[in-house]
User: What shape does this take?
Amino acid sequence: MSVYVFGHKSPDTDSVAAAIAFAALNKAKGEDYVPVMQGKPNPETEMVLKHFGLPTPEEMTDATDKKLALVDHSDLAQAPDNLSKGELVAIVDHHKVGDVTTNSPILYCAMPVGCSCTVLKSMYDQAGVKPEAKVAGVMLAAILSDTVNFKSPTCTEADKKAVAELKAIAGVTDTDALFMEMLKAKSAVEGVPAMDLLHRDYKDFDMNGKKVGVGQLELATLDQVANMRDALYDAMKQQKGSERHSVLLMLTDVVKEGTDLMVLSDDPALIEKAFNAKLSGNSMWIDGMMSRKKQTIPNLQKAFGC
Ligand SMILES: [Mn+2]
Assistant: This one.
């Protein structure tokens, strides 16, 4: 009887890579393990699987009458449906302990590191098994994704060491370039209508009785929208209409760590004052501005006298 390895619902790259890696480790020991995923791969995961030449795991969401393992979670809310009607045999994770319980002893392997695939790397080491190059590739991509290329506060020395060892096995020479490719896949804008991009992550705010809309697009590089600026500005005009005082669009460069802020306002000078910057054309670069919630909105509130 196969053991199905499930990542969490709304699969991310780690939950898929960890399912593949855990299944492959057990297969190397002669056991029948199959990676599955609870839903479709996101654009980043799709790119990573294609890059390393691995098939997309089968979709599966129900545990009834199945032998199964969980990776990258131990919360019921993220686990497959009818978990209690299946037989859970293992959990590999890097989160706080969740609310999944079992009647029998299981393999439970969790470590306080940045990624489930870092836990799996140490399981491979312990078993004396070297992952196949393709599997090592998706494991290292998962670590880059979960640790935001080592920048996340959750990143540990163990994650860095795992990447150093996995890149040699996978034949990856430049992990920064791989991370950039992943970011581009995640932030893909090509072929998406400008109005959809404006609304990808958009909110209206009340600023002292004035309605201000702020959208944000996270990008690997501003070049991604170089040919779309006019179309984006037209979408902002349409969005603003007569009811809004301002519509702003944050074009956030995740690599350079700053935002080119596109501005359409009844009072552009007020927006300039809010960010202590000067518009050139219809946008201005604001170094270090990454967060709408923590940076953009508080500055606007101050300028609007909220
Ligand atoms: Mn994870």
Summary: Residues 3-186 form a domain with the inorganic pyrophosphatase (n-terminal core) fold (CATH 3.90.1640.10).
